[in-house]
Amino acid sequence: MKSLLLVLTMELSLSGASWYDKRPSADLRAAESSVAGGEPLTVLINPRTPARRAASLRLTEEARRLIDMGQNGEAIQKLDRAIPLDPLNPYVYFFLAWSHQHIGNSKQSLTFIAEAERLFGPDGPWLSEVHALRGKVFQSLGELEKARAEYTMALRLDPANPRAQEGMMSVGGPPVSEAP
Amino acid sequence: MRRRSLIRVLSLLAVTVFSLGLLYRYLAEMKQTVQSKFNGRLWNLPSKIYSDSFLLYPGLSLSAVSLTQKLMKIGYRPTNATDPRPGDFSYRARGGVVEIRSIGGRNGSAPGSAAIHFQSDVIQKITGNDGKEIGLLELEPELISGLYTGTWEERKIVSLNQIPPLLVQAIISTEDERFFRHRGIDPQSLFRALVSNVLHRRIVQGGSTLTQQLMKNFFLGAERTLKRKLNEAVMALIAEHLYSKDEILTNYLNEIYFGQKGAQGIFGVWEASMFYFSKEPHDLTLAEIATLAGLIKAPNYYSPYRDADLATRRRNMVAAKMLNDGVISQEQYAGALRETLSQRELHRQYNDAPYFIDFVRVELNKKYPPEVLTGEGLSIYTTLDKRLQKMAEEALAKGLMRLEETYPALRKKKELERLEGALLAIQPQTGEIKAMVGGIDYQKSQFNRAVQARRQAGSIFKPFVYLAALSLPSHPFRPNSLLDDTPFVWNYDHRTWKPENYGGEYHGRVTLRKALEKSLNGATARLAKEVGIPSIVTMARQMGITSPLPDVPSLALGSAEVTPLEVATAFCILANNGMRPEPFFIKSVIDAHGKTVEMKSVRLERVLSPETAYVMNHLLKGVLDRGTAASARILGFDRAAAGKTGTTNDYVDAWFVGYTPDLLALVWVGFDQREALGLSGAQAALPIWVNFMKQATADTPPSDFPVPSGIKFVLIDSNTGALATPYCPTVIREAFHIGDEPTKPCGEHPGPGTGEG
Fold first, then answer.
1. Rounded to two decimals, what is the model's pTM?
2. What b/e sequence results for A96-113 when a residue is b if at least 16 CB atoms lie within 10 Å of its CB, and e otherwise?
3. Can you tell me the ipTM of this complex?
């Protein structure tokens, strides 16, 4: 929290996309190791997007950039602001889970992952990332079997998910080529 | 003769030695005093408590006028200048545009520019100074209060190189033109003052140097005695002997008093610059510099807030003196005189949320020693929404007054026995406390009923009974389950408990929905017996009730005493689709150097499945639509909302807790002395809640509780609870966990069943 700020955020991107149903072309998979890389979440904003939802997405995108710069504390503050603007924005919970995992708050990370998973829905495009992140949390808790199961699930949904591949290798799982 | 002379000499010598000893001791004491001040912490910097910041974004419902009012409250000033300076804003009513040049500066943030375009009281777009659209704009938080000892001295300490030389020269020129030529006291100036005072036969001129003024402010009072003047002069000489002119000047520029903003005293040039002109000293114009320098003589008299004409005349005198001393050129002087000094509206700093601040203070006291809180200049950023806080205070005050007017029996002669109340508003998705009113008058009673009052819960506890029932494995109880609302006796531990309905009226066989909507004691008690008190206690604990819960049947009807805060927190779980937010009110603590000392973030925990929370919300919406809180609709609150009234069986406590998906508010009304109100929660607390919520939610778009994927809606007969047929006279759209919905059509009104997915 900083006083006397005028936070000038990213410019509006008004490319057409319906709400949460578009897989950003440069999503996490394309972003390699950088969670904040690629096309911004603001591509999901279109002229019909409700104002609060659009503001929530913009804050989430700002947080994503902060995460990429390693500023997880600041990212969490942004994401905390984004929640009440649109409690149904799954990206908020996903990146909250990501940040909390990075600052060692595994319990809170798991809660946010569950919420992101619920809001992304069973066919959500980011579901592979959700499982990969949960695998990482379990791994950090020393629960390697659970971690392996999550990485397996992530790779089943997206065999090219680099974080799941890397995670699976680090827990001594099957080589990527043999992953289900 | 000789002996007498010798005695005289010796006596004189002794007196001299003794006097010199006293003088030495006096000087040593003075020196130590000066040194200890200069070498120690010079000033106590009060900690400041701020509200939450304010987010602007396209589509936000907000009028341009409301924004300009808010801007002025946080220190911006209106201007028509073509070249706006930091802290300026302009409003073009014709185009519906508010242009802001941010203040910047604090904590290293840089000033920026933005234009906010309005259309029909909605932000249409925000553009930066390059004309490009901006998605979000965060305005500065408002100062709520300070934590200080004695008087609230507001100052930011700056070094000499952070102050523009012209301001330093203006102050020297006005207050002590020979500052760099004297050694602490200025005989020439003293003589001139003496002559002037004798001629006027009253004190018109001081003759004190800056160093003397500093000594007076540091160590001595304002009394005009010879002793004080002597001490001041001696200390000034010592200070000048021990410290450089720059050190003395820096301390003076940080110490000097510049006026009053309500409870806040404005000290030092930086704070004065911000207070009078909303800009840092380096951004001041010559005219503004002259105004500030002129204020030192009598800050509240020459204040531009008080009298712009008088302040202008004083400014011109200072500018003339600067010209005369060769500090500025004729051209600069003429330019300064041309500048208009407009009268500004003073937004006095009062503690607008005293109960909240007390609550914050108690929490801070657990972590920080008092001397840190009142001396180290911490910035404490809270979750408080000042707009909601004002609405909450007004709603409670008006509501209680209305009750006293409507029901004369509630009027008490003794002030401390007056009707009391509390109101809490929480953002359910985050747990942020947005408003807190702990009583009708903080000056008379600092007891914070919102968090400290432990009162009987009454019917407001019933949702925990129903939640325990709905959460039983295999779901034996569903919204359409039928319960007996008939006189009932519960025998336990060789004792008997006989709950009665309000008004003594029983409804026979009712659906679980109706029992909850109408808050029926008989049906609820029977349900509690089926569920078991231990399960109810477990559920209440899961929901965050921490007060003692007696293991007795009457618990089901709210015999336990609880605090408003824990009840509000528990209902946040429902409003937040089953996730418990940890309530919090301090977002971060930043030290005087801008370093984060503490940061708090949203903490959530899943307590109920989204489906169970939704079923409960759907039931509690009925409380407002058809049940005990139906008057909310008559009073004009038409948004989707759920809630529960609470009335204790002796009518001592009246409660209402209600929520939309965006905001939860709880109202409690009662007497501290636990006298009977004789009113229900719907009569006493609900109107206050409605008044508050109507205003608080006015600017947010209507929304409903999100339907989780595991919910199925079915039309049922509202009396039999069975699947509705086209022949059922009263039908209700009920929410069920998928698989729990009834499949058999209503037997009392035969016909083909209807359902919807």
1. 0.82
2. bbbbbbbeebbebbbbbb
3. 0.82
